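**User:** My hope is that you can spare some time for a protein that puzzles me. I have put the entry right below:
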Amino acid sequence: MLSRLLLFIFLLISSLSGCTRVWAQSYGLGFRSFEVVQDKRTALDLSPGTTLCPGNNFEIAFDLAFLPDQKNYFGYILRLIGDNNRNVDILYDNSDTASQRFKVVTGDRFSSIAFDITGAQLYEWNRLRLFFDQKKQQIVLHAGNKTFTHPYQVSDKTCYKILFGAAQYKNFHTTDVPPMKVRDVQISQDGKVKYQWPLDEMAGAEAAETIRHANAQTSNPVWIKKMHHSWQPLQNFTITGPARVTGDPATGSVYVVGQDSLYSYRIATGQLSVKAYARQSLFMDNQVLFEKSSGRIYNLFINEKSVSELDLTSGAWNQNVTQPALKTHFLHANKFFSPADSSIYILGGYGHLEYKGNIQKYDLRSGAWMDLSRRDTLFTPRYLASLGVATGGAYVIGGYGSTTGRQVLNPRNLYDLLFYNVKDNTFKRIYELKVPGEDFVFANSMVVNEKDSTFYALIFPKDKFATQLQLIRGSLVKPEIRRVGSPIQYQFVDTKSFADLFFDAHSNRFVAVTQFTNEHGQTNVAIHSLYAPPLDTEVRTQDPGMHTRVMLTLILVAILIMLGAIAAWRVWGMMRRTDRNVAQPDPVVLAEPESELAAELIAVPDTAPRHFPATNSITLFGNFQIFDEQGNEITKSFTPLLKELFLVLLLHSLRRPGISSEKLKELLWFDKNPESARNNRSVNIAKLKSILDKLHHCQVSKETGYWRIDIDEKHIHVDYAHYLDLVSGKELTKENIAQLADITKRGSFLSNQNYEWLDPFKSEVSNEIVDTYLRYAGSVKVADDPEFLVRLANYIFYFDPVNEEAMTLKCKALAHLGKHSLAKSTYENFAREYSRIYAEEFRKDMPEVMHS
């Protein structure tokens, strides 16, 4: 049994380690290159305002990849400038026809080190390591499985300025930067890592160093993680008259069909071209579809059951339909091309108060248009669904419709995933999603990945004009979806709006295209991109060292579980032996059990504090939760934006007088103009008021000129308000401390919420809690209540694991209780953690601590 337990712990630690590797793919620092002017190019300085002195036998290592589809690949990758006068450079030189384009320069000469990375590998991550060997007086460069050396005078007293990309340092100036990205920079000495910059930020100019907190500085950074989280606007243009959109995923081209011109936009290069042609009709429900094998764009006149073709080579349409059939419409129908029978299929749609369940087919070979009879009733008449092509047919998910197709008979949102089989014209129901908190419909297309049984689609609520598109990742086999990436602003009126999703396989990006036709007959087209794989929606700028600390914490918890289990195993064994030998009991030597040691090493907060009501309450410590007077949790009623708005107002109301409209715009709608921000604020404040009405004693106000949330604390319990009262500076009692511990045992303050504006609040809370605990500890003699002081020290360690006062307090209290080995273990664990965090030894020994 014990061996199985140890195996389980080992597998747990291994799986946790493996999880971090999977997550840590989409990050790094991208470098702006020749596509921008000189003063807009990217630089990374590992030691802003100073130099680094790594000592003898040091190595600098980093991951490098080039950015594809750029015009000019030339420039400095890395520069090490020793004692302000000796440079060692790694650069990329494509100025001649030589195959060895990566070169190392020492001083003003090329060294003997030159190599190349060819083909697609150049655009994938490559690990480069440059080693300064003092013993052999040479530099050694490792690139993949290749090693190169060059004689070089190495001194252990040399201090270096280390720069990536553009450099403006003393006499070493350069603006020649190759289009590249860099991540996981490390400096090691004698094989031990001394500095580490993951470069996994999402914003700002500072790059955190995770060992010694020697943060680096960037200029004009392009953070890769942000490109996997935030949609980037690529192109926005306006067309006179209606427009329709299609795309070529293989080349990453978006085609916008206007009445007299074709607009072509290439994602990789950012080039927009316009080609005029003879006037082409676009009616209410036209859709267009690009088909790669024929190199043509098909304009589908669904009502008229006709198709015109645009040859991209000649730029001419083969026909034009000028008389629309006005009887029915097929707005927001779904379409796809089936290579198995060279046909275009059209599913569903809406028009004239009816949702359509039609399955229509256009055969490109014969030019025949057919209405196919449905062989089942699984496909509910609908529109605003999403369709993705797959082997043998297509997947269709969601939409809005009704069983009968009539708008007046119980229309509703649909959340079923179906597979349409082209061969036998049948549907198969895969599953139905659980009804979400807020209903949504889908943009026209989804991206299907059959290899890992996933899909990506854009969702949005149909009952709002000023709304947002949100990318989701779903499964093709089980009913689960996850929001990924940031939202995209979208204006929706079903007769004037259209949104679509493509995947550019060439640049590995999702592409969202939105269009809206205004009252003047002009269509605005916006193109956005998001790099794959997309990160979860809730990802925010965070402490770059957090993942390492979380990993260490998880491993520590696993070890503690193991220690506790071993202790329990031993106690159980002793009890069994005692039971077998009741008549002649063995003499027992009392000792401090290891399980107690495990319990004392870390204070894990309880999930259920003793004094917190489950009705009419708002909890901010641990998970953010709100319960109404019936005890129902209403947190799920909040969208991500409403949740953030509520927290902004609540915290500024409890901690400060409130928040101004200007500050609110700066925090939540900084990317909008004043009028748009006002509209967004008004709409979301109204939604928030509607949700808070369920609490009866909680309301949004602006009576003081500031936005506030006014709460009647007699009827609604807010743990944060109670916390503020406890740490307000009044005289502390043991009961006060116990109440504070009950609050903080739920977890850290808003532990699952990560907003940039929230960081100062979290920092204030941590500092106040530690200060309050220490203030009380200073008022109590160790001899008066040593057991409580041990718990108090554990409370402090939860917020500050290397608080010296807490360690001293705990050691003295344990010693007073006669638990000297636990006191020693507490000191040793503290010293190890101190050394790990600060990279230096704790200078006090155990006797000094006990007598301080």
Summary: Confidence is low (pLDDT under 50) at residues 1-24, 540-550, 576-611. The chain is about 25% helix and 35% strand. The domain at 28-221 is CATH 2.60.120.200 (Jelly Rolls). The two ends are 46 Å apart (CA to CA).
